[in-house]
Specification:
243 residues; seven-stranded mixed sheet; 7 strands; globular
Length: 243
């Protein structure tokens, strides 16, 4: 066990931040496994498994750059960093960005923390192999208030990334985007209009809390590995059988 990580975990346990848990997301280290999270632990690991399987991480050459937009305390950032990736993590929430920085100090993993929201200027002359935008788009857009600005940032991010993993739900939760379409179809259309010429594939659906369903996609011009079910849903969306 890492004694520095144990001290961080003890501090979080003694001073919980969330009203329904110690922290929001789990952290992928044994020292934090006893902490209670306000989001579903199974959901975080399910999404990680969907991402890892689509990339076939066991054979993926990992000295690549990864961008994590809205990283929280770094669950996905550290999952990639533990496999050799160099990660740029953007998290505007001071509390969670500081936890991430403390973990970097304790582990020496290659995660550069930016305690701010990603902005277009941050992407100038940047190229990432993998970008994560997991349940962050609605916070950037503040629901329907700044949808065009968020869409412009999504377009720039997609053009700077070989693989873009994008997750979003609609109509549920704070700052939710409202739509009368099926949320999965709305997200598909958003990605179609914003990430071209990349191909889009459906990876799965997870529930972070309550009944808040969020849909995970990958947009890429590289190889991606899909199950028969993922290929079927992708086909139905592409041909507008799901609307």
């Amino acid at each position: 066990m890492n004694t520095k990580l144990q001290k961080i975990a003890f501090s979080i346990e003694e001073n919980p931040y969330e009203s329904s848990g110690h922290i929001y997301h789990p952290l992928p280290f044994p020292e934090f496994q006893h902490l209670k999270t306000s989001s579903a632990v199974k959901s975080a690991y399910r999404k990680w498994d969907l991402i890892a399987r689509s990339l076939r991480l066991s054979s993926f050459p990992f000295d690549h750059q990864v961008l994590d937009v809205g990283a929280n305390a770094g669950f996905y950032s550290f999952c990639f960093a533990k496999r050799g990736a160099k990660v740029d993590a953007y998290e505007p929430h001071k509390y969670y960005a500081e936890i991430g920085r403390q973990i970097v100090d304790a582990t020496g993993l290659h995660v550069q923390w930016q305690n701010k929201q990603l902005e277009p200027g941050d992407l100038v002359a940047k190229k990432y192999e993998i970008t994560l935008m997991l349940s962050v788009f609605q916070w950037i857009s503040q629901g329907d208030q700044h949808l065009q600005e968020a869409t412009n940032l999504l377009r720039l991010t997609a053009s700077s990334s070989r693989y873009l993993f994008f997750e979003l739900g609609c109509n549920q939760g704070k700052s939710a985007i409202s739509t009368r379409e099926r949320p999965i179809a709305w997200v598909w259309r958003l990605l179609q209009q914003t990430t071209a010429p990349k191909s889009i594939a459906f990876l799965g659906t997870a529930v972070a809390w309550g009944k808040a369903r969020r849909h995970l996609f990958v947009c890429t011009d590289g190889p991606v590995y899909l199950t028969p079910w993922q290929r079927l849903v992708t086909y139905l969306l592409r041909n507008r059988w799901i609307r």
